[in-house]
Amino acid sequence: MHQLLHHYRPLILRTLSLSVSLATMSSSLAISVPLTVPHSSKTANSSSFLGFRNGIRSFGAGNLARSRVFMSASVGSQTVVNDALFSDYKPSLAFLFPGQGAQAVGMGKEAQTFPVAADLYKKANDILGFDLLDVCINGPKEKLDSTVISQPAIYVTSLAAVELLRAQDGGQQIIDSVDVTCGLSLGEYTALAFAGAFSFEDGLKLVKLRGEAMQEAADAAKSAMVSVIGLDSDKVQQLCDAANHEVDNDNKVQIANYLCTGNYAVSGGLKGVEAVEAKAKSFKARMTVRLAVAGAFHTSFMEPAVSRLEAALAATQIKTPRIPVISNVDALPHADPDTIRKILARQVTSPVQWETTINTLLSKGLKKSYELGPGKVIAGIVKRINRGADIENVGA
C-alpha cells in the first residue's frame, strides 16, 4: 500500500492542485451558454420569504435547479443571470395579488388572530412611521384610499393573507405547490416579495416610496383615470383617439390597464378623461366609472416618479425569484435582477398587460389560482376572461 501511494503521489498532488485551481477560477469566472434574449445582467440567486423552507419546488424542480447551474455565470463577486431562465415555464398553480383600489376599511382585522400575520403590521409601523393597522381597520376611508397609504396597506395585507393560508390545514402544501405568481400593478411588488426576489421589509420600503412618488407626480398635473365598461380594446382605443382629437397634448389619454374585454381603464389629462366620458355612449359603452385614484397612473404623467424609483431600486438587494413572476409591462417572467429593476421602474408609465398575462397563464395550462389580499377584484377579472377558470379568494 505504501509503495502504491508513493508511486501515485505525483498524480495525486497534480490532481489536488488542479482541483484547487479550478475552484479558485470558478469563484471568479464561470462560463455559461446564453440564450438569445433582449435583456441580461447581474446578481444573485434565490431565497425564501416568510417561512418558505423547501427551496425550489414544483416548476420541474430538478430541471430548474440544473438550469440555474448552466444558465448563470459568476464573474468576480457578481453572478450574471440569464433573463430567459423562466421562459419555458409551465404553470399549474398561481398566486395573484391585487393592486390599488382593492382596499377597504376593516381589512387586516382577521390577520390579527395569527401571530405571524399580525407581526407584519408591527414591522410595517416601524418602516412607515404610522400605525398602518389602525388605518386599515378603522379608516377613515378617505385616508385609506390615498395613494401613499393604500399601496403599503394592500402590500402588507396581501402578504398577511399568505400567512393566514399557511395556518390553515393543507395551507403550507398549497404554498409549496405554487409555481407562478403575479400581481396587478402594485401587486407585482407583492408577488416579487412572495417569490423571494426581495425581503418583506425592502419591498415595503419600495412600495412606500412608489406611493409617495406617484402621488407627487399626480399632484403636478391635472389628470385622472376612468374605467370604460362594455367595449373591447379596439373600441376603447377608438374612443381614446376621438377624445384626443379634441384636447391638447397635455390632456391626451390612453389605455392604461388592459384588464379584460369589457373593462379597460383609460388614463390621461383631466380634459381628455372628460372627453372620453362624454363620448363613451356614442361608442356603445355601457358605462364609465371614474376611478378614485390620484391621477393618470401607467402613463407618461407618472414620468416624474421614475427617477426616484430607479434610485431606490438600484439601492435594493434584488435576487432571482424562486418561481416565475409575470411582469405587468410585457406579460413575461424575468430572472435577471437588473432587468427586474428596469421593468419595475418602467411599470408606472407603462400600460398594465393583465389580460395578456391571464390569457397566457391559462393557455399554458394553469389549473388553479388564488387571489390573496383584500377584495375580489382579481377573481372578477379572471372570471370575465375565462368563466371556467378555477380561482379562490384568501382575504385577511
UniProtKB/TrEMBL annotation:
Task: Give the residue range of the signal peptide.
Answer: 1-30
Q: Which InterPro entries match?
A: Ac_transferase_dom_sf, Acyl_transferase_dom, Acyl_Trfase/lysoPLipase, Malonyl_CoA-ACP_transAc_FabD, Malonyl_transacylase_ACP-bd, Mitochondrial_malonyltrans
In terms of Gene3D superfamilies, this protein maps to: Malonyl-CoA ACP transacylase, ACP-binding (3.30.70.250), Malonyl-Coenzyme A Acyl Carrier Protein, domain 2 (3.40.366.10)
Q: Can you name one GO molecular function term for this protein?
A: [acyl-carrier-protein] S-malonyltransferase activity
Q: Is DNA damage one of the keywords? A: no
> Domain Malonyl-CoA:ACP transacylase (MAT), which positions?
96-395
Do you know which SUPFAM superfamilies this protein is assigned to?
A: FabD/lysophospholipase-like, Probable ACP-binding domain of malonyl-CoA ACP transacylase
Superkingdom as given in the UniProt entry: Eukaryota
> What keywords appear on the UniProt entry?
Signal
**Under what name is this protein listed?**
Uncharacterized protein LOC107411556
Recorded source organism is Ziziphus jujuba
